[in-house]
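request received
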Amino acid sequence: MINYTNILREHTLKATPQRLAITDVLYTNGHINIESLYEKMIKKFTSISLATIYKNINLMLEHSFIQEVKLPNAKSVYELTKETHSHIVCTTCGSIEDISLDLNKVIMQVSESNAFHTTSSDLVLSGICIHCK
Amino acid sequence: MINYTNILREHTLKATPQRLAITDVLYTNGHINIESLYEKMIKKFTSISLATIYKNINLMLEHSFIQEVKLPNAKSVYELTKETHSHIVCTTCGSIEDISLDLNKVIMQVSESNAFHTTSSDLVLSGICIHCK
DNA sequence: TATCAAAAGATAATAATTATCCTTTAAGTA
DNA sequence: TACTTAAAGGATAATTATTATCTTTTGATA
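response:
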């Protein structure tokens, strides 16, 4: 079990029980939207306020402790910040997976054809996962 | 000037003046969010309802006449449906441009490593555009 | 030009998110 | 270990975004 207390503090975020629980949910689930996160959190903290969820998600985003993933035809989900990666989303079961892809060639195409200097990329591939095929 | 009356009808959408104006705004601006679209529309139709904007945007999405583009740190924008393409977004000036990129290699990587069958891709590259460099 | 389903406009209702205010607490310091 | 205080949590009001409802108007077809 990872000690997220220190990781939160490294991001200058106080390690409150609520934040540790949010972190635990994100770690366990990988990707989760606000509504589902709230449902899971309320089981551990029966009186947690939805405002606490929003305030923490926004603060964690500002501190780059977590990241938002915008998906087609779905609510945004949140994940713990990790190495740069893309996402594959199954249109049948809705599962979301991280995937490490080499986008250097693509980014080269862009810099050549458009004189555009890419600093970050957001790629979501939609399709059918191995379980649904 | 393209005749969008027939194109709307091909998508089984009645060609109302409001829809033709929305189409014109999308054609002229390329990408626009709800708020900006409403501001532009109200200049032509001083009494247009915001509900009409939402209803038409949603209907046009359902009929694949337009598409939503989800951007990092910004509201979604909408564009007329065209050939498959990606987007480059300038983090300095906010400009959004279409770009045709060959993602076949990347999609191949996915199918090999994850047995995932990709049917569509959403790629947004953020960075610095030629004007801001 | 008459008919009618569909669309527009006005606005109420709902959903999503943020702000406010008071109480509690994490974390540094004596 | 207790003290201090800025920050965080909880409750809830306020705001913003989106959708639903209902009545009037209109595009498209006969």
